[in-house]
């Protein structure tokens, strides 16, 4: 393994050949494209120990599709109970994300009925209206910044609608989100996370007297086998929807639209074959799998020849697994004929609860752009910017187009 310098200390159970004296985040930011940067890990060992695996914390990194898929299912060795991170500092457990079965199963059962494909069908017209309203604001201009004008506000408005929060709150949530993700200091990021928590506490108090949406009703009236949910459990659910459904959708939309804008042939194909969009959305989700999640090892054990110890942190960079040529031949290009299911929504007990909603949002957004605008492109001399933290996100994406004739 590369050892950039010898300043880091490594735990004794990590053999020298698996020690990587790097920050995963810095490594992913070394090229113009973080997915290509991260895919370089596929040339190294399938599992290794990074000095900084996740937000400054050292730990194992699993860098192959087959192994990551196995670890996602093996919750008895790879626990979702929290390792380091902002939520731990706030004393919040993301719910159901930070729990293992059987507790996880009990929480998840309360939420599942709200996110079935049928339930999402009921939300489709609201999602379309939100999309149409946002596009109407810039359609006549012939250009936009896809990220600030569309990709950030779109899932944020849908989050507000799910939660029964007034749309006027949107700018506050955008600002907190930006600060939590990109605040320059840890204090700024923690400050924003605390502001969100304070807001959610107020929202919970109001929802307990009069729940505004089916999701709020399911949470505030949620019953476990022997008791109702308590306030921390409900707040953990609120926080999950805030952290789970915004950044991920906005990230996937940003990278997908950049890909479409860069490839006129693919763009024309999609416009002429809108029935292929559901397949295309899944393939774009694979290509631009934006998440790196984490697990905690529950007891000493050996995983594919690697000795892991209780409480070791394990980074799960799904964006690496999704570019693994053993699972996806020619992994860096879209291929709508792939058979291997994509892993962007993880697998096992924590398979993304919001995946049907996410797919619908992304499909509606791409369809709306393709049917309204032709020749969507990045104007000459302009470029996109991005950051590669725990999720990969485009920060700005200038687009221009001609109206459809
Ligand atoms: C492109 C969009 C999305 C991606 C790539 C994505 C990805 C993921 C991944 C990888 C996980 C598993 C995390 C883990 O195992 O540690 C997850 C879980 C989850 N996601 Fe998503 N997600 C997306 C959109 C959404 C949306 C729109 C919502 C809700 C409105 C949502 C709600 C959740 C919830 C509640 C969980 C926790 C499930 C559990 O712990 O049982 N996600 N998501």
UniProtKB/TrEMBL annotation:
InterPro entries: Cyt_P450 (IPR001128), Cyt_P450_B (IPR002397), Cyt_P450_sf (IPR036396). It comes from the Bacteria. SUPFAM superfamilies: Cytochrome P450 (SSF48264). One of its GO terms (molecular function) is oxidoreductase activity, acting on paired donors, with incorporation or reduction of molecular oxygen. PANTHER family: P450, PUTATIVE (EUROFUNG)-RELATED. Belongs to the cytochrome P450 family. This is Cytochrome P450.
